[in-house]
Every structure is written in C-alpha cells, then in structure tokens.
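[job 4471] stage=fold_predict status=RUNNING
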Amino acid sequence: MKRKYLIMGLVIGLQLVSGYNYVTEASWLSKTWDRLETNAAKQSYDWPKAEQYRHYSIGQYVGERLPQEELMVLGVPLGSTFDAVKASLGQPTKETRYGLSYGGVTFGNTILGGMDNTVTYISITNRDAVTYRGIAMGDSMRKVLKVYGRPDYIDYDDRWFYGLLQYRTDMMNGILFEHKGDKVSKILIYK
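[job 4471] inference complete, writing structure tokens
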C-alpha cells in the first residue's frame, strides 16, 4: 500500500513539475496505474501461468461444463441454426456458408465446412457484445480473473479457457479469452 502511494506521488509530482494539463492527462495516469498494477499482479504467486497447466495426460478431461446461459451472446445460444440467428438478430452485416457476422460478432460453424448450418462457435472481436458475465473486448485480464476466477486451462499461446476441454484434442466447450498484454483482444465461445 505504501508503494502505491509513493508511485502515485512520484507521478503527480512529475506532472506538476512538467506543467502538463492535468485534465487531459487523467486517462494517461489511470492507464499507467492499471499497467503497473497488472504487471505487479503477474509477478505474484497467485497470477495464473501457462506452465501450471501442463501436467495433464493426452485425452484427459479438464474443467467442467459451463451452464447454457454462459454459452450465448446477444441472446443466441450455441447450437442455434443460422436461420434462428437471423430471426433473432435480423439480417447480418456479412454472410458466408461458414457463418453470420453482426459487426464484431460472428456466429460460425466449422463442422463439415459449415454445411450443417448450426452455430458451433461465437467470436467477439470488438465491443459490440459481452459475455454473460459482462466481459468485453479491451477489458483487463485482471477483470477476467476477478469475474471468472482461475482459468480451467491456459494454452501454449497464453489464452485463458473456462469450461470443459479434452487435453490436446479439439474438444472444447466453453469460453476462451485471447489477450495482448493485459487486455482482452478476442473472445471465443465453443461448443
């Protein structure tokens, strides 16, 4: 706690000496402070690290299945047909045989090249939508940790997964958070 006040005092002191406009630089200060806190959290013992998730056997089940409401976005659950998505959300901004896009939200299918017409994954790439628990693109990984708890798995690309997966296979049922630095950069929901 003393370190927090010391750092804040140094930052404010530097701003006073340099003559920056305090109103416009408030966002800079909050962003800098957030980065400092996140970096300190990543150094702590409690921060989840990928190497803590390498002890599973191939094919072993990891985690637990999430409730159905966790696997829906904009009121559309995984397993819906493309026609049901259109009936619920209207005409998409982009449509292919693999999926329907509504701005930064894609309802897609990877099974049989998209030919079976059901949603097997949902991808969120901007702030057009949030998860059931309110996580959006750009939120901090600290917020993800606070809202979801420790991940059930962290893969080799340092992506955090919550739900049920079969280790070293394609079977995943849950939510995957990709991140750049300490911010969520993409959210994937799999069935």
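[job 4471] summary: Helices lie at 2-18, 26-43, 82-89, 141-148.
[job 4471] exit 0
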